[in-house]
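Our consortium's second objective concerns turning raw sequence data into structural hypotheses that experimental partners can test. To show how far this objective has progressed, the report includes one record in full. It was chosen at random from the queue rather than selected for favorable results. The single chain below, 103 residues long, was entered without modification.
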Amino acid sequence: MYAVVNTGGKQYLVKEGDILKVEKVGGEAGSELKFDSVLLTASEDGADVQVGTPLLTGKTVTAKIIEQGRGKKVSIIKFKPKVRYRRKRGHRQFYTKLQILSV
């Protein structure tokens, strides 16, 4: 069974057993999480497809939080020639690693 869920402003195609990184979601490692914003569900062979308008009612996806963490550093460099303007900043995005338990 496949599903498309919406979290953190992004959509993810998930199935049971998948491990994925999403934008930070509140909760501690080991706790369970339910996604109510399911946009689509489909069977493995694609025969039984249900599409929401925009969401499906009564459908949930359950996931387990594996870890909370921060991604790799991204360097942001601003430079303007001839005016001695240089800025260097770094950013590390927070993420949550999830394992999908049921669809």
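The partners drew two points from this record. The chain has one domain: 2-102. The radius of gyration is 19 Å. Both points have been shared with the crystallography group to help prioritize constructs.
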